[in-house]
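Researcher: Please translate sequence to structure tokens.
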Amino acid sequence: MSGIRIPVDGIDGSGTAHATALLAPNPSPMTLDGTNTWVIGRAEAVVVVDPGPDDESHLRRVADHLADRRVVAVLLTHGHDDHSGGARKFAGMVNAPVRALDPRHRLGDEGLGDGDVIDLDGLEVRVVGTPGHSFDSLCFWLPEDRAMLTGDTILGRGTTVIAPDGDLADYLRSLDRLRAGAEIFSAAALLPGHGPVLPDPVGVLDEYITHRRLRLDQIRQAIRDGAEDARQIVEIVYAEVDPALWPAAEMSVAAQLDYLKSL
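Model: Translation complete:
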């Protein structure tokens, strides 16, 4: 069973029986409370997922937290700096390789891709390819906990931006894949790269899929109403969103326009 932990005083220390979040001190409108660095393992051998930004205090804290354990590898859900910026420095602290889908972020000979399985003293971490938010986005399934680490594919609050190196068609397929898996394998928790643990995976994924369909319908209507570019669409469709987030919304609109043009 997952043994979900959700501390009353925040995200730090939350997780499941074999996964624990250590919150990086980089809160922002885009990173929510900060980046969740995940430590996975049940015995001596562990992996660290997304060391976070190049923040010495955070990296040292994670390393100190694992002083009596062996870091087999550093894994990246994707290469955006708030997840990967400190990976090489942290890998040097704990003498471990960095494994990622994108070769530019690897340290060592091994990459990481859909279908790979990492064995930690009998605890499996299964790699699931979920492109969309970025071209190199991965999720990690922990069968023993029935929990999925989702990086930026699913957030603990709000919805995900399709970054310039992402693709909405890929993202929609990834959501469908995660939704099907969550139901088939009775997923108990989603462990996001930002925000709190989500204990209702099927419900969250249904909300994400419904939200994407609604936004596409709203963009179609905005175009019919005379909107001529991404900025005008944002002003109509994302009127309820904090204007500080409009540049990110504009990225998502651009991705949605590309998707609609491809249909």
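Researcher: Any highlights?
Model: The chain has one domain: 15-200.
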